[in-house]
TrEMBL record:
Pfam families: adh_short_C2 (PF13561). It comes from the Bacteria. GO terms for molecular function: diacetyl reductase ((S)-acetoin forming) (NAD+) activity. InterPro entries: NAD(P)-bd_dom_sf, Sc_DH/Rdtase_CS, SDR_fam. GO terms for biological process: bile acid metabolic process. This is Diacetyl reductase [(S)-acetoin forming]. Belongs to the short-chain dehydrogenases/reductases (SDR) family. PANTHER family: 3-OXOACYL-[ACYL-CARRIER-PROTEIN] REDUCTASE, SHORT-CHAIN DEHYDROGENASES/REDUCTASES FAMILY MEMBER. Coiled coil: none annotated. Gene3D superfamilies: NAD(P)-binding Rossmann-like Domain. Its EC number is 1.1.1.304. Keywords: Oxidoreductase. It catalyses: (S)-acetoin + NAD(+) = diacetyl + NADH + H(+).
Length: 243
């Protein structure tokens, strides 16, 4: 049996990149997937590729009203919501503290942190009604050990880690599990240009991570295989954080 057979999942920021791979792997594992993103053309193209068990919704994750609409449309289309993957996020180039503008800091906070709160709050009622659910919040290794010249990003990812624990404590009695995933250096379209032999030799596993490896962890946490895991951090960094 497929690991996510008949489960309904909302995945944010899923029109491209890591989120799109998560969506594809979820479909392959039997889930019905709501792909949300502000990138409408790319989101629709992905859903056309994924087939009848996928739906795209244009979604600003910083909008409370959009979150309410996404959950309502998911229930209308597929009947319920079993899984939320808070994947949407942004970063800035490395900057000294004094060069980070307040507007930049607030934008990262809104997209990386506040949206996670909005998402958990939006799905809680339907998951409570079902007395089950899995919320997977994508944080970062920067939410465990920090990142140099990344104060806004680090702050937001530490916040995701903390909110995950608070939500897990509150929602556990309803059989709703909440966990955070903390990728390290993963090979993506945004990082390929940075990868070289010297960099990879600095990692304990001597290579960058693959998006599919992150997807594997997300699927594990979304599935019933992780039924006794909640309020925890799951690190995928090739040992980088252990140094």
């Amino acid at each position: 049996m497929a690991r996510l057979s008949d489960k309904v999942a909302i995945i944010t920021g899923a029109a491209r990149g890591m989120g799109a791979v998560h969506a594809k792997k979820f479909i392959e594992n039997g889930a019905k997937v709501i792909v949300t993103d502000i990138l409408e053309d790319e989101g629709k193209a992905l859903v056309n590729e994924l087939g009848e068990n996928a739906m795209f919704i244009k979604h600003d994750v910083t909008s409370e009203e959009d979150w309410e609409s996404v959950v309502a449309k998911a229930k209308e289309k597929f009947g319920t919501v079993d899984i939320l993957v808070n994947n949407a996020g942004i970063d800035l180039p490395a900057q000294n503290i004094e060069d980070v503008e307040t507007e930049q800091f607030r934008k990262i906070t809104d997209i990386n942190q506040t949206s996670v709160f909005f998402g958990m709050r939006a799905v809680a009622p339907v998951m409570k009604e079902n007395n089950k659910g899995s919320i997977v919040n994508i944080s970062s290794l920067a939410g465990i050990i920090g990142a140099n010249q990344k104060i806004a990003y680090t702050a937001s990812k530490f916040a995701v880690r903390g909110m995950t624990k608070a939500a897990a404590l509150e929602l556990g009695e309803f059989n709703i599990r909440v966990n955070s995933v903390h990728p390290g250096f993963i090979a993506t379209d945004m990082t390929y240009h940075l990868i070289n032999d010297e960099l990879e030799q600095s990692f304990p596993l001597k290579r960058a991570g693959r998006i599919e490896e992150v997807s594997g962890m997300v699927i594990y946490l979304a599935s019933d295989e992780s039924s006794y895991s909640t309020g925890a951090e799951f690190v995928i960094d090739g040992g980088l954080g252990a140094q």
